[in-house]
Amino acid sequence: MARLFKEPKLVLATHNPGKVVEIAALVKPFGIEVVSAGELDLPEPEETETTFEGNARLKAHAAAKASGLPALADDSGLSVGALDGAPGIYSARWAGPTKDFGIAMDRVRAELGDNPSRDAMFICALTLAWPDGHDETFLGTITGALTFPAKGEHGFGYDPIFVPTGFSQTFGEMDPAKKHAMSHRAHAFEQLVAACFAE
Ligand code: ITT
């Protein structure tokens, strides 16, 4: 059985402002005080693992150890079927050192070339780690299709080229609350809530 989360405060172990907004919105209904890794000036660990789960665990443990508080980390990315799952765990790196997702989305389009397949999915691993070294990890996904050119100003990362299955707008065009309710992050978080926040 998963360990229950009883503490009043949680570190959001991410330096990505888009993730901070989304995870803070997911945690808010539970009345837990949150502080981000950026606010605590925690170092950004190098993501040396080969899976989303591995990198989420690495980031959560680094933040829990450095802060002495429980930490919630997110490792996520876009997986494109016709590109054998790329950019996958390298989704952030495709944006380069300036974190320009215009460049990353152009690269996805260029690598697809004439391939008519547009199937893609977002994947999110969430790890809750405690300073004593215990952790719980959950994986969420959402399927969709890529569309070009990019559309919409909401969200972050690859949101402007991703249309979730059953919808006609990109995540970038959608009201953020709508994305938060259905995303890969929301699906991973639902499992975390059921396992660690339930009494
Ligand atoms: P942290 O490691 O500090 O959390 P990061 O941006 O480097 O920040 P990742 O290594 O997990 O995080 O990279 C995930 C990338 O995948 C992220 O930068 C986005 O480009 C993309 N991504 C993940 N979730 C997304 C979402 O909901 N919408 C759009 N793009 C997303």
Q: Helix count, per DSSP?
A: 5
Q: Fraction of residues in helices?
A: 25-40%
**Integer count of domains:** 1
Structural class category: alpha/beta
Bound molecules: inosine 5'-triphosphate
Biggest pleated-sheet summary = 6 strands, mixed
Q: How many runs of DSSP E, i.e. beta strands?
A: 6
Strand portion: 15-25%
Gap between N and C termini: 12 Å
User: What's the mean pLDDT score?
Assistant: 96
Adjacency order of strands in the biggest sheet = 2-1-3-4-5-6
Give the second-level CATH assignment, the architecture: Alpha-Beta Complex
- As a whole number of angstroms, the C-alpha radius of gyration is 17 Å
Structure description:
The protein is of the alpha/beta class. The chain has one domain: Maf protein (Alpha-Beta Complex), CATH 3.90.950. The chain has helices at 17-27, 52-67, 101-112, 176-182, 184-197; strands at residues 9-12, 33-36, 71-80, 119-129, 135-146, 162-164. Strands 2-1-3-4-5-6 form a six-stranded mixed sheet. The longest helix has 16 residues, at 52-67. The protein starts with 8 loop residues before the first strand and ends with a helix. The model has no long low-confidence stretch (mean pLDDT 96). The chain binds inosine 5'-triphosphate. Residues 14-16, 19, 47, 59, 74-78, 91-92, 101, 122, 155-159, 171, 183, 185 line the site of inosine 5'-triphosphate.
